[in-house]
Amino acid sequence: MFSSLLPKPKHTTHETIKIVLPKPQTKKSEALIVQSKQFEPEPKTISELKLSKPLDYTKSVLQQSGALANAQIAYEDTIPLKTKYPNLKHHFPRYSLENCPDSSLKDCVDATREVIEKLLAQEQGTEIEVAQDEIVSYIPPSLENHEEQRGRTVQVTTHQEDPMLPPKHKLRKNRHKDPSPPPPLLKKGTTERITKEVKDKWAIPSVVSNWSNNKGFSISLRKRQEAASGGTVAENSSINIEKFSLLALALDDADRRAREELKVRNEERRLQAQAEQKEKERRFEELVSRKRNERQQLKRPGDNSDEFRSYKKRSA
To answer: What role does this protein play (predicted)?
Structure first.
């Protein structure tokens, strides 16, 4: 009833409005009370008039509207029905497709959508082809009389799909399969049982190398010899203690010389940096003193001369 008071839709043309919301063909009365020339109350005297009741214009209203609407001319007609009849059954709130008890609302919506789509297709010149259901009977090629082998009847229905819907299947970027795991390296294990003596024989403290021992482990020469020979040492093998002592002395001497050279080199670099810093300071002092002397040598003009006044203006 109040749809005519709403503004026009934003993205809709006049032709679409005519199709979706057709105007009714019936005539409605624009006025509730209209004076009619054919029906006029007869003049009566003051004593005959019933002042407690108004004049009845029902016939005039019905005649003017063509008897297509009810005449509302009394005060009782302005009272809402919910107030006038508290037990009146109404259809508000209206049912939706989810909570409707029967399929009447769904059938109405489908029929309305079909009519609107048909009208739009006729207006645009693209009629929708409705695919009919197809019934297919399938009989497997078997001579057995089992219930599963007798055949089936399938009804094929074609539904219209929205082209703007997102894809139903997820597309993977990497379609290749994962590589197979590397084959295991199989080798025959030792059947001998490892004893404590063998473990102790192969127990070597962890060191970085034979030449640098940062953590300060004390490793015996026997252990080093066993590790260098692969874990087996000859029974009659002997260690040349003199040669090892000479090697240790040579290594200590080389380390001491390297430390002394590094110390001398660092001292030379420090002295050179100090000399460069002193030279920079001397040059800076000479430059400052030269500029000071040049300023003092400038002759200052007289106080009463024009040159002094112009000098003041420039300095200001």
So the answer is: Involved in pre-mRNA splicing.
Sign of CA dihedral 77, 81, 82, 86: positive
What type of residue sits at position 40? E
| Cα 33 from Cα 72, distance rounded (Å) | 8
Beta bridge partner(s), residue 137: 153
Query: What distance in Å separates the CA atoms of residue 201 and residue 191, rounded to the nearest whole number?
Result: 19
Structure confidence at residue 147 (pLDDT): 58
Q: Which residues are CB-neighbours of 153 under 8 A, at least 6 positions away? A: 135, 136, 137, 138
Over residues 125-170, the pLDDT tens digits come to 766 667 788 998 887 776 566 655 667 888 999 887 888 888 888 7
Can you say whether the dihedral through the CA atoms of 220, 221, 226, 228 is positive or negative?
positive
Return all residues near 46 (Cβ < 8 A) that are at least 6 apart: none
Residue appearing with tokens 């005649």: 63
Confidence (pTM): 0.23
- Rounded CA separation 78/74 (Å): 7
Distance CA 111, CA 130 (A): 14
| pLDDT single digits (tens) 192-241 | 888 999 888 887 755 546 666 666 666 677 777 777 776 666 666 676 77
Phi-psi region of 80 (alpha: psi -120 to 50; beta: other; left: phi over 0): beta
**Structure token pair of residue 280:** 């920079």
The C-alpha atoms of residue 212 and residue 248 are separated, in whole angstroms, by: 13
**Which H helix or E strand runs over 135?**
strand 134-138
